[in-house]
Amino acid sequence: MSLDLVVDRLRCPVCAGALAVESAAVRCASGHSFDIARDGYVTLLGGGGTKVFGDTPAMLAARADFLAAGHYQPIADAVSHAMSDATSILEIGAGTGYYLGQALDAQPSAVGLGFDVSKASARRIARAHTRAAAVVADAWRDWPFADDAFSHVMSVFAPRNAAEIARVLASGGAYVVVTPQSDHLVELLDRVRVDQDKAQRLAQTLEGRFVLESAEDVRFVAEMTAAEAGQAVAMGPSGHHLDVSALRALVSSLPEMMHVTVAVNVGTYRAV
Prior knowledge:
With 272 residues, this protein is of the alpha/beta class. The protein has a single domain, classed as Rossmann fold (3-Layer(aba) Sandwich). Helices cover 29% and strands 29% of the residues. It has helices at residues 2-6, 57-68, 73-82, 98-106, 119-126, 162-168, 198-206, 226-234, 244-252, and strands spanning 19-22, 25-28, 33-35, 42-43, 88-92, 111-116, 132-136, 150-156, 169-180, 210-225, 257-271. The strands form two sheets. It has an eight-stranded mixed sheet with strand order 4-7-6-5-8-9-11-10, with helices on both faces. A three-stranded antiparallel sheet has the order 1-2-3, with no helix packed on it. β5, α4 (98-106) and β6 form a beta-alpha-beta unit. α2 crosses α8, α3 (73-82) crosses α4 (98-106) and α8 (226-234) packs antiparallel against α9 (244-252).
């Protein structure tokens, strides 16, 4: 069970005590218990749950198909290269677990943990790699992970909670983050919500806690079918605003084949 590989890095969301796997649950010494789902993940949201909505199963299915086709492979390669010395990896908002799985493939001795607020995501993360575990948790609240628990933390188009990243990152560790550039998916800009201010907001978020060690410009043109371009839309923030009929109408309006610009920055940060 993958949770066995990382349970020493987990903490009870109620009392922050250490957790241990016992039968089909994880428990702390104070008696708080959290069932391990049949799919292998554990929910560690604590009291009150969360008001944040994760990706829907349809959005995740579109993302899985799109990524499996290799359209973003150069991004995955750049992220894996940035974590070439990783021994333990935490991915924030891990979605399908694609990038975490790729990074673990590149680091045969590393263990990984992906967390997401979506249970549908956690199901996929738990199957992403034999050395990957999955947790349901809210990126904007206190994380149910130990201090200094991970050599690397990564977020790919995902939330960035600077205080918690700094807390769980081990001394000398690295935070690897992927952000879109201004012309990312430019051919779909009228259909895709691209945040033009992400780079500036990232710098403001990390200021005082992290310094930029290196940055890689990953830029290429991906050839996509109309259906795949529709998946690129459905798997992102716009997917929350498109129902099935709207997505079908969008795909039918696209040319049979498209060349789409992919432009992101892969930044590696170290704690101050």
